[in-house]
Amino acid sequence: MAVKLILRDKEYEVKSGMTLLSSLEKCNVNPESVIATRNGEMILEDEILKDGDVIKLVAVISGG
Amino acid sequence: MKCRKCGAKASVNMHQHKLALCKEHYLEWVPEQTERFIKKYQMFKRGDRILVAVSGGKDSLSLWDILVRLGYQVDGLYIGLGIDEGIGYSSESHRLAEKFANENNLNLHIVDIEKEYSQPIPVLAEISHRGHGKPCAVCGLTKRHVMNRIARDLGYDVLATGHNLDDEAAVLFGNTLSWSGEYLLRQGPVLPSTDGLARKVKPLCRFYEREMTAYALLRGIEYIYEECPFAEGSTSIYYKELLNKLETDRPGSKLTFYLRFLEARQSGLFVEHNVAADGDLPTYLHPCPNCGQPTSAPGLCSFCRLMEKVKAESNAL
Fold it and tell me: How far apart are CA B235 and CA B246, in angstroms?
């Protein structure tokens, strides 16, 4: 199993054991532009992602 | 990462402040900081009647929530723009603004653009041929006019908007790229009232957009997550993304950019010509003969000219 990251209608998969920050970098997602949640709880960049984790990324940029 | 205040697991990490906080302490910190900014920039006082412009988004609903928690006397204003685009954007944002007001027993004024001005924003934009095929210019113009009208007509002391630091930094970046001196001079946490214009304040102007999202999520505020369908590909979003790349490499860059600008403005780097006495209009502005709001063009203001055009086009059909 791997780790799934979901940002709006996009899904990414990364290996478990990486930090959130490394995962975001690998997916080319700017960490400054999202907030990550796991099971409804906010997690920070140093969190180690585990097998089967589903990380929902909340986009923070809005406006026109 | 641990909360600096209690050592519990942190929920929010703010690199620019070198500060990580748990949920409980973050939800205390945000109103404390907001109060500090309100006082620092002398935005309003206890007892003032405040009107907060709410869009159903995270920033404006969070601002309303924070000001109520701080004990201020705050009502909301929701402007129904009539934007649907297949996702019911305006109806959903209206629902969320009303839900927040009802759940917190707050007073929400609602202005429906289509009811008041005969057409929704996208049609007004189409009729007026303004904005190069996008309704954003007409939308901004109409919102500014309505917010000011309601604040003034209902006797509010101040109009508060949920602009965050990313909004301000993006505008500043755009105005700096084009060296728009007039706009640079007017940008700031407070726009004083003048004859016909309500006092405008931005109590969230020093919080990153990421921090306001965290606040809304941690407070359980339901906000419209979908972007305005017309905002896709906008310049302001592009600038925000650019500034976030800079922020990732150099934490604190956005905050420094904005704060150093405010300091430079304060120290007189930008010079106002056509200076007016306190409360008077600068000499290059005059009141619109129709609505009384200030305008720089001779005769009617942009909004009243827009409405004249809409009326003429409608009569011709």
Answer: 17
pLDDT in tens, B43-81: 999 999 999 999 999 999 999 999 999 999 999 999 999
Cα–Cα nearest to B196, from B152, B158, B157, B144? B152
User: Which of B242, B248, B255 is the best residue to mutate to test the A interface, defined by the most A CB atoms within 10 Å of its own CB?
Assistant: B248
> What one-letter code names the amino acid at B299?
G
- Can you name the CATH fold of A3-59? Ubiquitin-like (UB roll) (3.10.20)
Write down the CATH number for the domain with range B30-281: 3.40.50.620
Nearest chain A alpha carbon to B16: A32
Q: Do B59 and A62 touch (CB under 8 A)?
A: yes
- Please tell me the pTM assigned to this model: 0.94
3-state SS assignment for residue B265: helix
Distance of CA B74 to CAs A42, B18, B70, B148, B187, Å?
30, 32, 10, 16, 24
- Bridge partners, residue A58, by sequence: A35
Buried b or exposed e, range B275-284, using 16+ CB within 10 angstroms: eeeeeebbee
Q: Which chain A residue shows the shortest CA-CA distance from B162?
A: A63
Q: Is the pLDDT of residue B276 over 80?
A: no
For residues B123 and B105, give the distance between their C-alpha atoms in angstroms, rounded to a whole number: 34
ipTM above 0.85, yes or no: yes
**Distance between CA atoms of B317 and B313, rounded to whole angstroms?**
7
Residues of B whose CB is below 8 A from A32: 210, 244-245, 247-248
Q: Which residues of A touch B170 (CB under 8 A)?
A: 63
Question: Domains of chain B: which residue ranges?
Answer: 30-281
Neighbours of B71 (CB within 10 A): 10
Q: Is the distance from CB of A6 to CB of A55 less than 8 angstroms?
A: yes
For residue B46, the distance in angstroms to the closest alpha carbon of chain A comes to 30
How is residue B65 written in tokens?
């929530």
